[in-house]
Amino acid sequence: MSxxxxxxxxxxxxxxxxLSNEEREHIGKLLDVEASTFGNVKGNVxxxxxxxCKKCGKLSGLDDLVYGGVGLGVHTKGLMIDTLLHGxxxxxxxxxxxxSRCSEQFEGVFLWFSPSNWHM
Length: 120
Ligand SMILES: [Zn+2]
Hints:
This protein is α+β, with helices and mostly antiparallel strands.
């Protein structure tokens, strides 16, 4: 197992999911752009720690949020890229999240907060 930290609990609330290079690559593939597009994105702050998929063991990540958005077709890829780079326009409602590797639903619900701390 790698000792590279996958997340960081913030004193002001929330948990930063630290974006890994593997996740950058995956998000690039999902959105048809180079992984380096997201080179400056350090991670995103969520309401809870990552959870492991109970079927395949993958840790929940920003790539799963992107996978869900692309799959639902609710956002264009261009808008999703802009959101990843500049933060969401507002806080999100809590929603379910599916594993981007095997499509199993992660346990619980997930949300992010205001855009102000998206990249910190
Ligand atoms: Zn899975």
